[in-house]
Amino acid sequence: MTSKLWLIGMMSSGKTKVGRRLSERSGFPLVDTDDQIVEQAGMTIPQIFATHGEPAFRSMESEEVARIAGRSERLVVATGGGAILDKANRTLMRETGLVVWLKPSIASLIAKGKTKNRPLLLGHADLASRYTEIWEARKHLYEEAAHMSIPMDGKTRRQAAEEIWRLWQAP
Ligand code: S3P
């Protein structure tokens, strides 16, 4: 069993909720990179984007991934949807654990997607095309980062967590 279980995937793919379930199931703590960044910065994510810009947010995110990767204990990690943008993050995640891609269909992401607290979606009236644009730009990076992907459509978050817990324990 690897030290970290990294959950990656698009905004609204269920990383935090599945992470919470996995943490309950496994008994290992959940760390959420977005929460850590907010705590460190003393600002919300929209405030960080508005005040310092996306590049500053991305460096904070990379610092957080590196900090978590450097911890010795077993952890469930819910990452922000863009954590895979940085090559060093992708490498670190793969080297320190099992990287699992939560993969709902784009249609269900669009149906469920919430703009609240998500600066990359705010101000985009056509959410469907915005999600599609982000998906097109990133899907190869999720693919590259992930050891495995979990289709999420027609599955509860609990079922997804059970599936991942079994995979994580597998020799
Ligand atoms: C982002 C996803 C967000 C958050 C930030 C940027 C992204 O996290 O890190 O708004 O680039 O996809 P969630 O995936 O938890 O919404």
Please characterize this protein's 3D structure:
This protein has 171 residues and is α/β, with parallel strands linked by helices. The protein has a single domain (4-169), classed as Rossmann fold (3-Layer(aba) Sandwich). The protein has helices at 15-26, 33-41, 45-52, 54-69, 87-96, 106-112, 127-145, 157-169, and strands spanning 4-8, 30-32, 75-78, 97-103, 148-151. Helix 1 (15-26) packs across helix 8 (157-169) and helix 3 (45-52) packs across helix 4. The radius of gyration is 15 Å and the shape is globular. The termini are close together. The relative contact order is 0.22. The structure holds shikimate-3-phosphate. Shikimate-3-phosphate (S3P) binds next to loops.
What separation lies between the terminal Cα atoms? Answer: 7 Å
Please identify which CATH superfamily we are dealing with: P-loop containing nucleotide triphosphate hydrolases
- List low-confidence stretches: none
Q: Look at the structure and give the CATH class.
A: Alpha Beta
The structure class reads: alpha/beta
Tell the overall outline: globular
The fraction of residues in strands falls at: 5-15%
H/I helix tally: 8
What is the CA-atom radius of gyration, in angstroms? 15 Å
How helical, in percent, are the residues? 40-55%
Number of strands: 5
Strand and helix order: EHEHHHEHEHHEH
Ligands in the model, by name, code or SMILES, are: shikimate-3-phosphate
Taking strands numbered 1, 2, ... along the chain, how are they ordered across the largest sheet? 2-3-1-4-5
Q: Mean pLDDT score, rounded?
A: 94
